[in-house]
């Protein structure tokens, strides 16, 4: 029985890797089925028959225990429940944690942009994934100017990256 489980586990790992390394061009998009939220910028999806973690590109939402973390998660969850969504890939399709990276679209609107524009998260530049960074950065400028969400009181006490680092130290 143990051999069967081990073989099944490795078969699933190989299938998962094969699915993720299939050739994907930058700007290519494909539909997925939304499963559930993890936080504002990551969630579980069903893609090519597998349940996969997806991480939004060019954004960093507050963590769930951080101020505005719950609001960001709820916004993402509500947005994704409103209809079919598509993932658009950039030059890099996976992060170091094995999550699929992408921009998420529904009816011509991008979730990454909408989160930043409403003040639920920060725009973050990553050198290998920056296809839409400029419009996401401009969305942050507008949210700051209009004092939306995290910008209502001038920003977060600490960035989500600082919050995660601080949490690890405990």
Model description:
The chain is an alpha+beta fold and 170 residues long. The protein is 36% helix and 24% strand. It contains 5 helices and 8 strands; from the N terminus they run αββββαβββαβαα. The strands form 2 sheets. Strands 1-2-3-6-5 form a 5-stranded mixed β-barrel. Strands 4-8 form a two-stranded antiparallel sheet. The chain is globular. The N and C termini lie far apart (39 Å). The relative contact order is 0.16. About 11% of the residues have low confidence.
Question: What Rg, in angstroms, do the CA atoms define?
Answer: 17 Å
Helix content: 25-40%
Choose one word for the global shape. globular
Percentage beta strand: 15-25%
- Report the end-to-end length measured between terminal Cα atoms: 39 Å
Number of helices: 5
pLDDT averaged residue by residue: 88
Query: Which consecutive residue ranges, at least 5 long each, have pLDDT under 50?
Result: 7-25
Order of helices and strands: HEEEEHEEEHEHH
Q: How is the biggest beta sheet arranged?
A: 5 strands, mixed, barrel
Helix-and-strand structural type: alpha+beta
Annotation, overall tally of beta strands:
8
Strand order of the largest sheet: 1-2-3-6-5
């Amino acid at each position: 029985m143990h051999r069967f489980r081990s073989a099944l586990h490795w078969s699933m790992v190989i299938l998962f890797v094969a699915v993720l390394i299939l050739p994907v061009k930058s700007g290519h998009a494909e539909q997925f089925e939304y499963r559930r939220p993890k936080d504002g910028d990551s969630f579980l999806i069903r893609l090519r028959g597998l349940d996969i973690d997806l991480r939004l590109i060019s954004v960093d939402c507050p963590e769930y225990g951080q101020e505005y973390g719950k609001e960001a998660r709820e916004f993402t969850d509500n947005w994704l429940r409103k209809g079919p969504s598509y993932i658009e890939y950039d030059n890099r399709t996976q992060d170091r944690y094995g999550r699929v990276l992408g921009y998420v679209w529904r009816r011509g609107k991008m979730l990454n942009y909408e989160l930043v524009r409403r003040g639920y998260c920060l725009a973050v530049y990553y050198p290998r994934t920056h296809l839409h960074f400029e419009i996401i950065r401009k969305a942050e400028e507008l949210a700051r100017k209009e004092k939306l969400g995290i910008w209502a009181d001038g920003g977060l006490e600490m960035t989500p990256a600082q919050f995660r680092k601080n949490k690890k130290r405990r």
